[in-house]
Amino acid sequence: xxxxxxxxxxxxxxxxxxxxxxxxxxxxxxxxxxxxxxxxxxxxxxxxxxxxxxxxxxxxxxxxxxxxxxxxxxxxxxxxxxxxxxx
Length: 87
Description:
- The protein is an alpha+beta fold.
- The protein has one domain (9-75).
- Helices cover 16% and strands 32% of the residues.
- The chain has a three-stranded antiparallel sheet with strand order 1-2-3.
- It starts with 14 loop residues before the first strand and ends in a 12-residue tail after the last helix.
């Protein structure tokens, strides 16, 4: 999985605290075919956090998707760790 963030050249010097992390949720939590990636950074005094995920498909896998979502929210630790996430 890959998550790409583009920053205009004039803002590049203002970007700091860049952090990235990926969490696999695929087969045995080792294979990266499913899971999430996150990127956090700061521009001046504003923090940004982006997450992208690819979870199990099909209606019969709803419980697995919900479980994987909660796992991603619990494990991804980027930026300000004191911020609350939606669970």
